[in-house]
UniProtKB/TrEMBL annotation:
It is found in: Membrane. Belongs to the UPF0057 (PMP3) family. Keywords: Membrane, Transmembrane, Transmembrane helix. The chain crosses the membrane at residues 20-44. This is YqaE/Pmp3 family membrane protein. The keyword Transmembrane applies. InterPro entries: PMP3. The keyword Transferase does not apply. Pfam families: Pmp3. One of its GO terms (cellular component) is membrane.
Length: 64
């Protein structure tokens, strides 16, 4: 999924159900200069999403 976020940033957002964010990222990605910030944004967002899932899983197991 990280490779998709680097090479096709807008698809990374679409796969995770963030349609509006994916469209904004696609607009940014259409310019050659905007490709790098779009890829960085997609990778950071993916890592943040994974961290949030990990945290939720840890909190859920602590409550038991």
């Amino acid at each position: 999924m990280t490779l998709i976020a680097i090479f096709f940033p807008f698809i990374s957002f679409l796969f995770r159900g963030k349609i509006l964010t994916g469209i904004i990222c696609l607009i940014l990605q259409l310019s050659l200069i905007g490709w790098i910030p779009a890829a960085i944004w997609a990778v950071c967002s993916l890592q943040n999403s994974r961290a949030n899932k990990r945290t939720a899983k840890i909190l859920k197991s602590m409550r038991k």
